[in-house]
Amino acid sequence: MRKRNSIKLLPVLASLLISGCRTELSSSEKSISEGTSISSEIVSSETTSVTTSSEEGSATSEKSSSENGEESSITTSSEDSSSIASSEESSVSVSSEPGVPYNVTFVTNCETMLDAIYTDVIYDMPLIFREGYTLAGWYLEATFINIVSFPYYVTSDVTLYAKWTEGETAHFTFELHPNNNGYIVTSYGGNAINVVVPTTYNDKPIVALGEKLFYQNGSIKSVVLPATLTYIGMQAFKDAVSLESIVIPSNVTELATDAFAGTISLAQVTLSSKLKIIGNNAFENSAFAEVTIPSLVTEISSRAFAGNTNLLSVNLISTTPPLRFANSFEGTVSTMKYYVPSSAYNSYINSPYWQAYSAQIVVK
Known about the structure:
Low-confidence stretches: 1-20, 24-97
CATH class of the largest domain: Alpha Beta
CATH architecture of the largest domain: Alpha-Beta Horseshoe
CATH topology of the largest domain: Leucine-rich repeat, LRR (right-handed beta-alpha superhelix)
Number of domains: 2
Mean pLDDT: 78
Strand content: 25-35%
Number of helices: 1
Structural class: mainly beta
Oligomer: single chain
Number of strands: 32
């Protein structure tokens, strides 16, 4: 009988360069549970200084400053100090609620290789980097039809395919995040119809879109956002009147006030599976007919979806009714329906936030 394991990719602590394609790994020693592994070949860049000891067979590391003043370190052992290479494994942890595990293989479509794993759930999106490209997501097909949301519950043997979109940083400006964990995109000076936001800058991930990044941009119709993104700032896409569709990456947890307000052509939106807060006026006067509210959302703020007269279907995944305001859906049509899980129907119609709309609440 095969051993049941589930994996959880740990938070990123270090990023190492591999021939123009990188993967994020913990800088501490990696541990791995029996029967499950993700590993990558890591070749150190010229900006990393390594000291090796061939006599004792032990490894020491020295910190060196890279061109942008940051420091990095790596530990290795070798009989030849001119040859610096190591193989590391990403840490995994066993789930307290194991399911039936299956084989998962990865086609990265770049030089970084991820080993196959045997698991029932992948909690966090595997992050790999390719110089000059943005990781648009993992898909179930080589033709990139169905994108995978994380956590991803594995129900059969499966292969996941990485989709890359070519991008460049010439029209963007960046600012280091206060937490020093990545960069904020602060401005865009181009006029492209289809825009790709880069995944990295100065070898750090892009973690946020700044305020008014695409404010009143009348050209942009589609945008590919990096998988590393966690936050979309105030008025980031406000009055981007030509924007037609958006997929918000699965690591985004908050949409700030007016993030997509006034996107009158926005006909399709996919929200992040880890989204928790939909800010004030976030999608006011947008144009999509259907939206799915992910299970982790705890607050649908004031006028979040107000004024969208096309909106007919709101799919609520959570069995716990999220906070909403009387005007969260103000100005939508009276025939709009809120679809809820059957097990949560009574919770919704009796919730102080939702009971006034019980006539519109329907079991899925």
